[in-house]
Amino acid sequence: MAKKNIKEIKSKILSMLAEHYSDFKIRKECLSLIHEGQFANAAVFRYKDDNNLDITIKDFSGSPWIIRNTLGKIFINIEGHSMIKLSDNPSVTKGVVFLSPYTVAFNFIEGKAIKEFSHGEIPKEFFLTLEENVKKMHKRNIVHLDLRNLGNVIMSKEGYPYIIDFQSCISTKHLPKKLRKILRDSDMTGVYKCWKNRCSEPLDKEREDFFNEFQKIRKLWVLRGYPLHRFVKHLKEKLSHK
Length: 242
Ligand SMILES: Nc1ncnc2c1ncn2[C@@H]1O[C@H](COP(=O)(O)OP(=O)(O)O)[C@@H](O)[C@H]1O
Ligand SMILES: [Mg+2]
Fold this sequence. Notes:
The chain is α+β, with helices and mostly antiparallel strands. The chain has helices at residues 6-20, 65-85, 124-139, 177-198, 205-223, 227-238, and strands at residues 31-35, 43-48, 54-59, 97-100, 103-107, 111-113, 142-143, 153-156, 161-163, 170-171.
């Protein structure tokens, strides 16, 4: 499949930035590509100038029309509105601005994803804070659903945990209690997977038991062809977090 036209996307982004950040002089050389993304994924950029504007831009405008106008719009909407709803959560970045129906911008977190650390390199306090902030997110009726991915948790340069990539999250507000609990537990085992893979200390017995118990449920999903996964995918298309 042909590649995205990054030059064209960049030029669109620059004019959107000029419109939405009119207090700043937008300069071409400050915009760089972080991650191109396949057609059904966003292209991710960073805009950093020496005037305190340091933002991430997630964009679907370079995807084919059919993707841009279905998944693209849905993902941008879910990601932006979830982050706005969670703006009082210390592990969620701020400054969300919708640049277009296919493009959202938010503050860049200086740091690195925990997948880039080696095994046993991160202190326990990091994961305790992450766990606490994931619980806070659940209290606002949002589940992330992609926390098992070690690329979605960033350690800022101050050592604080940040959660990114809210495009797969859903609102649990109208879900049955049992399902809500399963989804929240799924997020929590995501946190514990990160902990097991990167923390300098192992999980304590209570968390380890919780993790193992949930692994049994996950195995069942695999055997049954991920019915929950399909259900969530369907829900994502129905729900937005306005
Ligand atoms: N707020 C942010 N601060 C810093 N880097 C970010 C931020 N959001 C995304 N990134 C970078 O862009 C990459 C892709 O972003 P992500 O939201 O995970 O998209 P994808 O859907 O492609 O996984 C991340 O792995 C990270 O390197
Ligand atoms: Mg990601």
